[in-house]
Model the fold of this input.
Amino acid sequence: MIKCKTTEESGLTLVEILASLVILGIVFVAFMTIFPQMTLFNNRTETKLETMNEARVVLEEYRKVKWKIADLSDNRFISDGDWWTERRDSKTVTIIKIKKTPDEGPKLGETLKSGVVRLHRIQVYVLKNDRIISESFGYIQVK
Done:
């Protein structure tokens, strides 16, 4: 009886293990660079949502008031060409502009008939570091 000597070479060589580690390292580094960018994007989105909500709150606050032309001509507002402008300073700067000429309804000099209102465009800008972060617009009634 003759015995054949066979060797089983199952397993990985050192070169194969090192090559797989290098490939895994490259994939891992590429994957890890995504996370800081995702965090930055999430922070920007959160800031944008906060300022959009702030602008929306200001719009709702102005819509609830029953405005008269005299209210818009007081010291709170600055007459700026075709707009009345108000500036609010808090953690962000909010600039509210109300258009002097109505978009709907009779002109300012004309008397209002019963049930008729003037709709003036209102622009709300939220600024941070003198840069507009968010802006919104709507209409308010002026009698």
